[in-house]
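#dry-run=false #mode=assembly
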Amino acid sequence: MSRFWKPGTEKPVLVDDEEGGVLFYSSLSSSSRYGHASIEKQRQRLPVYKYRTSILYLVENHATTVIVGETGSGKTTQIPQYLKEAGWAEGGRMIACTQPRRLAVQSVASRVSEEMGVKLGEEVGYTIRFEDITNADVTRIKFLTDGVLLREMMDDPLLSKYSVIMVDEAHERSLSTDILLGLLKKIQRRRPELRLVISSATIEAESMASFFNNSRKRQERDTEELGPKKEPAILSVEGRGFNVQTFYSEEPVPDYIRAAVSTVSSIHDEEPMGDILVFLTGQDDIEAAIQMLTEDSEVTRKQGLFVLPLYSGLPRSDQDLVFSPTPRGKRKVVISTNIAETSLTLEGIAYVVDCGFSKQRFYNPMTDIENLVVAPISKASARQRAGRAGRLRPGKCYRLYTEEYYLNEMSAHGIPEMQRSNLVSCVIQLKALGIDNILGFDWPASPSPEALIRALEVLYSLGVIDDDAKLTSPAGFQVAEIPLDPMISKMILASNDYGCSEEVITIASVLSIQSIWFSVRGSQKELDEAKLRFAAAEGDHVTFLNVYKGFIESGKSSNWCHKNHVNYQAMKKVQEIRQQLRRIAQRLGIALKSCEGDTRAVRKAITAGFFANACRLEAFSHNGLYKTIRSSQEVYIHPSSVLFRVNPKWVIFHSIVSTDRQYMRNVISIDPSWLTEAAPHFYQNQQLKSRAQ
DNA sequence: ACTTCCTAC
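#status=ok
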């Protein structure tokens, strides 16, 4: 076993902590009871404070400043305040700070308003979907998701109200962050007075800086030019994370679930108190590990473990359990997907067990299918996972792979989402912003030409772009205006023609959230029975309408949801999205109209958006084998669909989830003649006829 | 016989 010190951190402060993590948690986390003066002192104790002058100098003199900030440096909360204190928000200008996640936007904004002693929504505000807590006249620092900032560009392409835009967590390389970075680089050329602050982890800093380097060979002239230097500056700010000692497996591990379980047992046996966080890949792994841990007689005998699962599909109340205090004398073990890598932060973790894998999405432009596969994580992820053990005190990380593997075989960072995704939404957003040459766009990470061409083909077949790849009018502009996937947006537009916009908007809202069903481990049967009460012979989309109707008729009762295994929180969200979409539809001139149960009209509207996802049951198929019309891919109806084992001859799916087989999720039955009606250009008559026999 | 994780006037 070898040791590993986290680079860039000081020697560990050794802390004698017989009491476990809880004590530290309470002593560090409660800032709200301090007065204003001591908030000021707290701010000055943050590592980033030492760099205040340097940061302001660099932002003043460089168009782009890349800040490398380890977690706990305070960069996100402090830099916007420094900028404001230095006058960047004077003269009606604003400072923007983007985050990839809604939750982060809310918590950072409220923290900063607290530090500044102002009411949230006044000088400091935030905007996320459905929540605009800003006041145009007084808000000077605005936190927002990068998706919202992209949407803002549709009205204000140069983002002219902002003097500085800070893009936080840029190293995560999310789809919308990368689109945003590409567009900001373009804006910079038109607005030399604009300043960018890109915050990134060490590993991506150089590539961020070189992406924003506009100076090229003109460095000599550059110094004589007025205005900021075009060459980006890089500044590193150390974090306040504690050291994490890392151990590797001596031999490659044949079964990481078993290895994770035995590692947890030996930590429990040999190490001082402190909570354990285990990273596995998905629900199945997690449940298997929990079962093994609770069945392990030796561990159970000691009765010392408090084991909790954590993944996004888990009901909220179960997720919240991981934040509950560890019972005295027990050790909390959270077994999690990578939701705990970035989205959720557990304080007080002393030990991390990292299996070295995660589920990752890969897109195949040839088949237009996104696959979900278990793949090795990157060094960057491994470091991030390890860091989860050192938030409040020094910790330990056990990697279930060899050091040799880490050093020589693990890739430095993951593949950007841009290169692993279907790009229809991304392309239409750029089109709407007037970017004509999509293939020539200066991306932070270029997607494959195949994926771009596929996206253009899909948009063309939807009638959203024309022969010159320009947005069509009005359909193209309307689809771009709806904040959903273009296929869904097209379905909403078509619902106007079929007189079923109310129903289709409900369906679009349900499809926008993860699941409307409340699924608990062990009650699968009850859930299946509940589904049967709403099941429609036409398929899942119509089933959603039945559920929504029942929910409304119950007076939006949470009790009704509980009885029917419907997720109440999800239904509230459906309602919110539905209201938003109704407003947008009205603005676009779509008449809000119900078809009063005419499910043919509803399915025709769905077909108008999703004709490309048509499948036909294979003749003589006994196991429900379908093939897609477009590319003859072999697919099956997902077991969660109401049409599972019903197997109608012709179906359309909303999406494919690819595990051991390709499963169609959310399926409706259709009449094949609707395909030629919806997209004559896409389905040549002979193509369907030749397959109809 | 099954669900990594996010976001969007």
